[in-house]
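Problem 12. The chain below contains 137 residues. Write out its predicted structure in C-alpha coordinate notation.
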Amino acid sequence: MSTQLTLSPETIQTLVQQYFAATRSADKVESMVACFAENTTSYDPVGGPALHGHAGLRQFFQGIADLFAEVELTEDFISINGNEAAVKWTGRGVGKNGRAVTFEGIDLFEFNAQGKIQSLRAYWNPAAMLAELLEVA
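Solution.
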Protein backbone atom coordinates (compact mmCIF):
# COMPACT_ATOMS: atom_id res chain seq x y z
CA MET A 1 0.00 0.00 0.00
CA SER A 2 1.46 3.35 -1.00
CA THR A 3 1.50 6.28 1.34
CA GLN A 4 -0.19 9.39 0.13
CA LEU A 5 0.29 12.89 1.42
CA THR A 6 -2.67 13.83 3.56
CA LEU A 7 -3.94 17.30 2.80
CA SER A 8 -4.90 19.55 5.69
CA PRO A 9 -8.58 19.93 6.57
CA GLU A 10 -8.27 23.62 5.63
CA THR A 11 -6.98 22.66 2.18
CA ILE A 12 -9.80 20.16 1.66
CA GLN A 13 -12.33 22.80 2.78
CA THR A 14 -10.87 25.28 0.25
CA LEU A 15 -10.90 22.68 -2.56
CA VAL A 16 -14.55 21.82 -1.89
CA GLN A 17 -15.45 25.52 -1.85
CA GLN A 18 -13.58 26.02 -5.15
CA TYR A 19 -15.57 23.21 -6.78
CA PHE A 20 -18.92 24.64 -5.68
CA ALA A 21 -17.82 28.16 -6.65
CA ALA A 22 -17.06 26.73 -10.11
CA THR A 23 -20.72 25.65 -10.39
CA ARG A 24 -21.68 29.29 -9.93
CA SER A 25 -19.10 30.74 -12.35
CA ALA A 26 -19.71 32.08 -15.85
CA ASP A 27 -17.54 29.32 -17.36
CA LYS A 28 -18.96 26.62 -15.08
CA VAL A 29 -18.29 23.54 -17.21
CA GLU A 30 -14.56 24.17 -17.73
CA SER A 31 -14.14 25.54 -14.20
CA MET A 32 -15.71 22.39 -12.76
CA VAL A 33 -13.65 20.05 -14.97
CA ALA A 34 -10.46 21.86 -13.86
CA CYS A 35 -11.13 20.75 -10.26
CA PHE A 36 -10.68 17.07 -11.23
CA ALA A 37 -7.59 14.92 -11.82
CA GLU A 38 -7.07 13.87 -15.45
CA ASN A 39 -7.63 10.20 -14.53
CA THR A 40 -10.65 10.82 -12.32
CA THR A 41 -13.60 8.51 -12.02
CA SER A 42 -16.98 9.96 -11.14
CA TYR A 43 -20.33 8.36 -10.45
CA ASP A 44 -22.81 11.20 -10.92
CA PRO A 45 -25.28 10.00 -9.85
CA VAL A 46 -24.28 6.79 -8.08
CA GLY A 47 -25.99 3.93 -9.90
CA GLY A 48 -25.35 5.50 -13.29
CA PRO A 49 -22.43 4.78 -15.59
CA ALA A 50 -18.97 5.85 -14.48
CA LEU A 51 -17.58 9.02 -16.00
CA HIS A 52 -13.86 8.76 -16.78
CA GLY A 53 -11.43 11.62 -17.21
CA HIS A 54 -12.00 15.20 -18.23
CA ALA A 55 -13.78 14.30 -21.49
CA GLY A 56 -16.45 12.26 -19.70
CA LEU A 57 -16.98 14.95 -17.09
CA ARG A 58 -17.13 17.73 -19.67
CA GLN A 59 -19.83 15.91 -21.64
CA PHE A 60 -21.89 15.24 -18.50
CA PHE A 61 -21.56 18.75 -17.05
CA GLN A 62 -22.38 20.34 -20.41
CA GLY A 63 -25.47 18.15 -20.74
CA ILE A 64 -26.73 19.33 -17.36
CA ALA A 65 -25.84 22.99 -18.00
CA ASP A 66 -27.68 22.89 -21.34
CA LEU A 67 -30.97 22.23 -19.51
CA PHE A 68 -30.78 25.50 -17.60
CA ALA A 69 -30.99 29.21 -18.27
CA GLU A 70 -29.18 29.52 -14.94
CA VAL A 71 -28.04 27.01 -12.32
CA GLU A 72 -25.80 26.85 -9.26
CA LEU A 73 -24.92 24.49 -6.45
CA THR A 74 -24.24 25.62 -2.89
CA GLU A 75 -22.44 23.57 -0.28
CA ASP A 76 -24.63 23.36 2.83
CA PHE A 77 -22.48 21.16 5.07
CA ILE A 78 -18.96 19.76 4.71
CA SER A 79 -17.48 16.90 6.75
CA ILE A 80 -13.77 16.17 6.21
CA ASN A 81 -11.81 13.03 7.06
CA GLY A 82 -8.28 12.74 5.67
CA ASN A 83 -8.29 13.41 1.93
CA GLU A 84 -12.03 12.83 1.70
CA ALA A 85 -15.06 15.04 2.19
CA ALA A 86 -18.79 14.45 2.36
CA VAL A 87 -20.82 17.44 1.25
CA LYS A 88 -24.57 18.03 1.53
CA TRP A 89 -25.51 20.51 -1.21
CA THR A 90 -28.50 22.33 -2.68
CA GLY A 91 -28.93 23.12 -6.36
CA ARG A 92 -31.12 25.93 -7.62
CA GLY A 93 -31.84 26.91 -11.16
CA VAL A 94 -34.20 28.13 -13.80
CA GLY A 95 -34.77 25.84 -16.75
CA LYS A 96 -34.86 27.02 -20.31
CA ASN A 97 -38.63 26.53 -19.98
CA GLY A 98 -38.69 29.25 -17.29
CA ARG A 99 -39.46 26.87 -14.44
CA ALA A 100 -37.57 27.27 -11.17
CA VAL A 101 -36.24 24.06 -9.65
CA THR A 102 -34.49 23.15 -6.40
CA PHE A 103 -32.71 19.83 -5.92
CA GLU A 104 -30.41 18.37 -3.28
CA GLY A 105 -27.74 15.76 -2.90
CA ILE A 106 -24.70 14.48 -1.08
CA ASP A 107 -21.31 14.25 -2.77
CA LEU A 108 -18.42 12.11 -1.53
CA PHE A 109 -15.09 13.49 -2.73
CA GLU A 110 -11.64 11.93 -2.62
CA PHE A 111 -8.74 14.29 -3.32
CA ASN A 112 -5.27 13.36 -4.55
CA ALA A 113 -1.99 14.80 -3.23
CA GLN A 114 -2.10 17.48 -5.96
CA GLY A 115 -5.39 18.81 -4.59
CA LYS A 116 -7.51 17.53 -7.47
CA ILE A 117 -10.70 15.47 -7.17
CA GLN A 118 -9.61 11.88 -7.76
CA SER A 119 -13.09 10.41 -7.36
CA LEU A 120 -16.60 11.66 -6.82
CA ARG A 121 -19.67 9.70 -5.80
CA ALA A 122 -22.78 11.87 -6.10
CA TYR A 123 -25.98 10.80 -4.39
CA TRP A 124 -28.94 12.65 -5.86
CA ASN A 125 -32.01 11.94 -7.95
CA PRO A 126 -31.84 13.69 -11.33
CA ALA A 127 -35.22 12.27 -12.42
CA ALA A 128 -37.25 14.72 -10.31
CA MET A 129 -35.13 17.65 -11.50
CA LEU A 130 -35.49 16.56 -15.12
CA ALA A 131 -39.25 16.15 -14.77
CA GLU A 132 -39.52 19.79 -13.65
CA LEU A 133 -37.12 21.08 -16.29
CA LEU A 134 -38.68 19.22 -19.18
CA GLU A 135 -42.30 19.94 -18.27
CA VAL A 136 -43.89 22.48 -20.57
CA ALA A 137 -44.96 25.55 -18.63
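Discussion. The chain is about 30% helix and 40% strand. Students who got a different answer should revisit the alignment rule from Section 12.3.
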